[in-house]
Amino acid sequence: MIIHLPSLQSQHPHCRANPQRFRPLLAMLLLAGCTSAVQPRPQPVPIPEASIRPPITPAVPKPEPEPKTASEPDAQLARGPDASPRIPWVNPARCLPSCAFDPANKLTRVNDRGEEDEKGRHRVLSEVREPLVSLLTAARAQGHALRIESAYRSYEDQVRVFTTIKEIGRAARPGHSEHQLGSVIDLRIPTGAAIEWLASHAADFGFALSYPAQKQRITGYRPEPWHIRYLGTALSHKARDEKLSVEELLRSQPDLGESGTCADCPHPASHAACGDVSSAGRCDKTVLVFCYEGSLASVDCASTAQTCGQAPGKEEYDCLPSDSSRSGDSHSK
Fold first, then answer.
1. Which of 179, 275, 301, 330 qualifies as a cystine partner to 306, CB 3.0-4.6 A?
2. What is the set of domains in the chain, with CATH numbers?
């Protein structure tokens, strides 16, 4: 910085003085000028990038889900073909979800005692075999020699049975049979005591009675105390404790069941219209014939030592004990 001072000789006469008196002032001005010349302008201090970010909270690892415990074999099995979430619901009017259903790759060949046997006459779903063996073993321990009479039947097998059997109402129409599921067994029961034992204890092993006595009007089939279906202990206990057939169980909880329309069933025997038969039905000698939800149903009452007739005060025909019914012949149409 250069500071120009006027000549002392050109100042007012009263300002003429000793030049030494201005030297301190001059020094101060020179010092101020030098200070301002060398002082740098303040520069912004850079802020580290990390300091302007929000703090990172370490991720808390999610707990591993607890492994699902395996439920009883029926938990998925009895829900239907190919682990369907619902139970196949079949009766004279309802078909399997698919008439082509074939669980062959899930079947195990067994002998009359339920033991695995490559030469065994019967096939059951692999998941059903263990509870079935437990049931038969427990029965034998109580003196009841139960054995397997029949088990899985394919659609084609059922066609053959239905078209060749002579007893009316003994076999379900193809596509309407629980045997096609692979979870149903007909047992050979030697005594009345064995029938009672089975009715009381089948549920403890996961089996329910599909066709109990005096339920033919509800099930559409004659009573079969030897016909058991694996549903698992929970549903089977409910059926036993509330004295329900499988049909009644599904009617009480319709969301559990699923059925097909029978449209994919190829054999004519899978379809039976009611024709002129009403829901009240009629008797053809000892055979009860009635319209069951739009499909024809037939039950030979003589198979249970009963006859066909009308109970007092009712319009419907039914199988009745012989000593309290009207003659089946008198009501034949």
1. 301
2. 74-270 (3.30.1380.10), 282-331 (no CATH)
